[in-house]
Specification:
Layout lengths: L1 H17 L2 H5 L5 H20 L6 H23 L2 H13 L4
Length: 98
Amino acid sequence: MYWKIQEVSTWFVKHVNAKTIDQLRGFNPSFAQIAKLSSSTADIITTLLQSGVWDDERVMANARQAATLMEQVASAIERGDMDSIQDGADRLSEMAFV
């Protein structure tokens, strides 16, 4: 699950850097839907950590941070805020998934 969040983060950055806002708005599923699924996945990782199945809090923190940044990008796409889109994408691309 964690590596899937990393893959989706990379996908977000790739498309944000290559597409216009109008093109980004045309994706199906939308960036907002994908960000919501990533957030749900981060919730599952948190639950596993809290139940003792997982013992690496860094994994949970990174998953949550990536999901939050994807939500920022998705919200900015809906608002047409290119600065916030780029900020979120830049911060996603700088994340060290370990």
